[in-house]
Amino acid sequence: MKAGHKCLLFHHVVLSVIFLCHGKDLFFSDNGNLILPGTYNIPWMAGIEDFRTLSLITMPGTHDSMALHGGPEAEHQALSLKDQLRAGIRFLDLKVFALSDTLYVIHGVMYEHSTLREVLDTVRAFLSEFKTEAVLIRVQPESFEKNTINQMVQNLISNDQHVWVNSGMPNMGQVRGKIVFLQKTTFTLGIPLIDTNGKGNSKVTDIKDKDNRIIKQLNQATEACGGDNAVMTYTSGTGFGTFWGMFLTPKRVAEKVNPWLNQYLRQFYPNQPRPCFGIIAMDFPGIDLIQTVINLNWW
Predict the structure, then answer these.
(1) How far apart are CA 256 and CA 247, in angstroms?
(2) How, if at all, do strands 102-107 and 91-99 pair?
(3) Separation of alpha carbons 113 and 67, rounded Å
(4) What confidence tens digit (pLDDT) does each residue in 224-274 have?
(5) Which regions of 63-202 does DSSP assign to beta strands (E)?
(6) Model confidence over 117-161: pLDDT tens digits?
């Protein structure tokens, strides 16, 4: 083979490898090393008008945000909390267990190598660097004494003026640089939350059926946007505990759902205005899917 042909073949192979690797990361990513393009807009909320009601913003979030440990059936994310925030995630989903005077972040029976205090410290550090942003947090108590967790969280935040615990719906200008808590069931600090994830929606035996359920959830979210409640849709799922979906781990579900979700959301780009979907909480989102969600806020 001539040298010129060898060179062309080599470049073709290299470009193919780059394309395939990037293609995996477009919408789904299980890579724990975040590499952002130089032009990546980390503080994307700077482009949201101050007067825009928080419930009218479509924002990317993660489901079981700290579930990076425990094996295939328990892992829902690959990126660290710091990297999730830098990638554009603005909603965190946390399950906590109280032991003595400490709130530990857990998933099922797995300790996720972090306390709630450490999570809040990481978020505060991010917000001190990017003051135009806000980070919404849902706390789900898993303790036997669930009612005590409200007071424990209140003790953690004390009188911090950069934490929103009111039930009233703020506009973007009121929460820049702040942690915003969302309340649901036994956790009563912050803005009331509507969760579109009906009973059994997390169980997946057929991916197409899961896609259709997500469409229904997003339609419900659109109807609730702009009200006095935050609204959230989980796109995550697992076949664990079912017969037909026993091999559908959270990662395998996200591999199929995330590219479909990206395509589904982008069909609304020609709309003026683009619809609001509230919070979309995902497993293993790639940066291009995160950007697709963010760009629903502009037209």
Answers:
(1) 13
(2) antiparallel
(3) 9
(4) 999 999 999 999 988 776 766 677 999 999 999 999 999 999 999 999 999
(5) 91-99, 102-107, 110-115, 134-141, 163-164, 178-183, 191-195
(6) 999 999 999 999 999 999 999 999 987 777 799 999 999 999 999
